[in-house]
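Researcher: Re-running this chain for the archive, since the previous output was lost when a drive failed. Same request as before.
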Amino acid sequence: MATYGNSAGVQINTGTGTIAGVTIGREQYLFLVGVGNVDTAIETNSPYNPESRTDADNKFGDGSDLANAYHRALDNGANPDYIFGIQAATSTESVTNTSGTLTNTPIVPDKSRITATGTTDNNDFTVEFDYKDTIDTPSDSETVIINPNSGSYDASAEVDLSVEYADWEPAIRSVNDELIEAEFGVISPLTNAPSVGDTLTTVVEELRNDIKMVVGALGADPNAIEGDGSDVPWFNTSDFTNSFDDDTLFTFAPTAADGFDDQNPEFGVEALSAITGLMAGNDTDQPIYDNQITSVGDFAQRISRADVANLRAEYVIPVRQAGTRRIEDNRSTYDQDEHGGWTRDYFRRRIVDLNIATLYQVARSQIGSVLDSDTVEDVQDSLDNQIDQFVDDGLIQPGQNNVNVYRKDDRTIGVDATITPYGVAKEADINLDIFA
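Model: Regenerated structure tokens:
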């Protein structure tokens, strides 16, 4: 019989050579990956768990993207013992031209880290952002427009342009050393850049292959700016196309807060850490759908019902302010219409992952035992009991689950399982081979 504890994984208790019980952690790790302040002394690419809000400010830099994200995640339910900030290393790229595309993208969308000087008169240029696929030539003189995510830029005259960019991949990969098998977590780079999302999905897949049950969370890629003198990221949802198709990646829009600060690396994704704090802090039997987030303030873009429908159609989770600030869906970027199968939303993803981790841990606990009928029976009984427990907990439907444990060969325990989480029209099949 399972017991629940304050950990972030599944642990097996053994006694006299048999499985005595299963302890399931109620917590999830939350890994916030950002840029921090340039003058902080914290080691890059090294997950750090702040001791307090003040410690987060001191280590990541007061008012930095990572410090702010820690506060918002904490305010929305994430357990402080499991919130880790990871500061990515940054470098500088400089070019001289009128227009072109930067080599290293995305750039850090912090105007205090961008310099632009005209080559003719050595005057400082005004820096503006735009997120359209093709940016316009500036109508104002001494101006350069940059798409922070794609790196394309266009200036009113030749300009010496210097920007910073983060090395996201080693920062995201550093999560690996903090996790052990059968632990759960959310990895969230504080950006809306699709190229970082590509890196994130690659790392998540590798971790999950090692039974480190993580998912990714990212701001959706904007396709416009607010306009009227504001270059806050914006979504023209009727023209929006999502670039991802992955059942372990969750993207959200919009995530920009009103009163934005374009001299901070979190520009445009201020709400993301509030959302991921909720994701990591919610109990397994509590979906994030229609839940409120706090500590964000007003949203810069208040989307309509039509916008919500358009974003849902692209498998992006809408975040809407209509009095309160609510998460209006919980589906991953997995294209359900094209691929079919069980519904890949956050609620079901967690239940399926819990079952995978539990099945794996129970079967793996017998490694080193004599692989005879008693061992197979012990694993079978334990998994049957655990499935019954999940039914009693309201996580999976009764009468629609099956576990078959068998001796696959003289050194392998085979486990075939079919589970049916509530609300899932089709089954999620799990096949595990445990090599003893």
